Amino acid sequence: MISSKWNIVVLVCVLVLKCNIASAGKNLRIIGGTKAKIEDHPWMVSFSNGTGYHWCGGSLINDNTVVTAAHCFEDDYLKYAVVGVADLRHEKTFIPLKKSKLHEKYDYLKTGYDNDIAIVKLTEKVVFSSKIQPIRLPKHDIHIPNETPVITAGWGTTVPGVEMASDVLMDVNINIIDWQICKERLLVTERMICAGDLNGGRDSCQGDSGGPLELNGTLVGIVSFGGLCGEPNSPAAYTKVSDFLSWIHKNIDI
């Protein structure tokens, strides 16, 4: 995982020599994972621009509402959502986005990735099926012990240093990492949780931002930022969803 948005990089040219300059922490990816079925993560959403190129992930929480990372929606770059498919090369429907709302206290220039959460409304309601389902939100008092196994999923690049989205949904099993250990390596706040593999080889990174950190089918975290992707002693930070339940419920009908 590239260290953070402080390092500005030129992203890979996409389609007709279209290049986008973006900060490196914007799109985290799956490293060390395996191909996943959409039925395993039926709440997964792929956000894209007008070209259909995957940019960020998200989690469906009802039939027209997605929870994602605020840093994915700092501008008007993303226009469409795709649900219900694991392989983005297959036939799919692009759902136009109606509105997005970033957390009022999210301000990267002042506070980094603190409060990195956003709600996105779709222009139409999806029809639930085995491939499209909302994810459960956690209880406000949920406690997740260190070393608890969790899962993250997304369409991010699978090769460190190559900023090209995966065509297929990937997931990876990782573990909750002690917050104090994480604090020694990243600029985290108490509104974040950390996960990964301190031995290296399993991680989220470019392309996975906004996607879920799951515990038994419950959304406990949102992919936010991290250190070097998949490297030893390099955890990733996730927005702690349980700290934002009131905000989510307050803004679910924007």
From TrEMBL:
The keyword Secreted applies. It is found in: Secreted. Residues 1-24 form the signal peptide. Pfam families: Trypsin. GO terms for molecular function: serine-type endopeptidase activity. Keywords: Disulfide bond, Hydrolase, Protease, Secreted, Serine protease, Signal. It comes from the Eukaryota. GO terms for biological process: protein processing. Transmembrane segments: none annotated. The keyword Secreted applies. InterPro entries: Peptidase_S1_PA, Peptidase_S1_PA_chymotrypsin, Peptidase_S1A, Trypsin_dom, TRYPSIN_HIS. GO terms for cellular component: extracellular region. Residues 30-253 form the Peptidase S1 domain. This is Peptidase S1 domain-containing protein. It comes from Diabrotica balteata.
